[in-house]
Amino acid sequence: METQQLVQPYDLSLHHAGRLKMYCEGGRDVTEDLVDHIAFGNEEFHVAKLGDVREENGEYQALVYWLGLDEDEASWEPVRSLYEDIPIVFRRWVHQHEDKEQVNKMAAELDKTLGRSL
């Protein structure tokens, strides 16, 4: 692994990273709420799951169920935004729903727009 000093002279050095371990210091009163705050923060909503897909005014949208919100608070979000924000979740959802014609059309259109395959 190559590292760089954060202060001058900003030297680069090579290190073997095979024995690195994650730092963990016990006894710090880490609560579940603190872990959730670190993982999710307070700034955004997080996707619980993706539902149906539709085409609205020439743009594909997916029904997004939000973590911590009721199902009736789900919203339709542009698939391109979802692909940019949660690419792994989005790709997994597309592959799990390849049997649905509308999802295949949406994926083909998104492939064309992005210029690459999902």
UniProtKB/TrEMBL annotation:
Start and end residues of each Chromo domain: 45-105
InterPro entries assigned to the protein according to its UniProt record, in alphabetical order: Chromo-like_dom_sf (IPR016197), Chromo/chromo_shadow_dom (IPR000953)
CDD domains tied to this protein: CD_CSD
UniProt-recorded name of the protein: Chromo domain-containing protein
